[in-house]
Amino acid sequence: MTLHTTGRSDIRIMAKKSSGGIGSISHRDIITAIRAGQYAPIYLLMGEESYYIDRIAEYISQNILTEEERDFNLTNLYCTRETDVADIINSARRYPMMSKYQILIVKEAQNLLKFDELQYYVENPLQSTILVICYKNGVVDGRKKVVKMIDQVGVVFESKRLKEGMLPTFIDDYLRRKQATIEERAKMMLVESIGSDLNRLASELDKLCITLPPENKHITPELIERNIGISKEFNLWEFRDAIKEHNILKANQILDFFNQNPKENPHVMTVALLFNFFAGVMQAYYAPNKSEQGLMQHLELKSSWQLRDYQTAMRNYNAMKTMLIIGKLRETDAKLKGIDKGNSTDADIMRELLYFILH
User: Fold this and answer.
1) Of 113, 133, 209, 288, which residue has the fewest beta carbons closer than 10 angstroms?
2) What is the CATH T-level fold of the domain 170-228, as seen in this structure?
3) In Å, what is the CA distance from 130 to each residue of 108, 119, 197?
4) What is the pLDDT of residue 3?
């Protein structure tokens, strides 16, 4: 990989490429190299998770050029299906004005019909240009010649969606940078309500941080309930907990609330959450090592408190019952989508599901 250096530092921190192959470099490695004044001539940022693609592109646009230099040397080009690759190449071959570099950020590159034609620029990139290609909602096949060429002269980064078990760590890391903390229950309320949409999750965390007093930057469930509108009593997380703990009364109370407010609490989302949870319980039953460390490794969990949810469920639902519940959840999902639904309402279908799980 070719790196530009600023000339202001003798630091030689190379952006690390792990043994994982093309696209295996982390966003932290990229940011670290840029912060050290080492820039690649081409960055291909691709993947299903747009959050890290946006953050890297934003960091490059804000931290390489001065404010005065950005006026003439920072270009954002948005691609449509009509965009001609030749226009991108011509822009990349333009020389900077009163600056060492120009930055060209190509957004929505997944719309390019002839992406492969970028190789005509990649084979001889201009050293004064930093070309950032943002390719979202998928990846360019790593076997393509153009990807291999970019990997040789620049950086190829794949932004993968975080698994549910990694979201609490993301929240902790994000808040640590803002010198804030969060209660475990509040953290899970956010995870269950927002899911793996990192852009939205970061946005909600930003809103919460703004409301915190300087002397106590700690996020509580009550704060989330007031500012985001997630009820700390009747939400998906509390529903899953009630089922996990076999609390029949509370589970039925929450389901009644969901049935009365179906738009705010979509039944399909509720079933998907329960399916993922019980699938995890089933995985735990088949783990070769049932110790805490073995289960955490098998389930790819980051902390022991996450494991406790599965251990509690295993005390209340044996392996056979868990398998039957997973089958019932599949059947329920199909009914909610109109398959063999008959005359039953969605509320009827959900009540039938909950009775099956708890009895």
Assistant:
1) 288
2) Helicase, Ruva Protein; domain 3 (1.10.8)
3) 17, 15, 28
4) 57
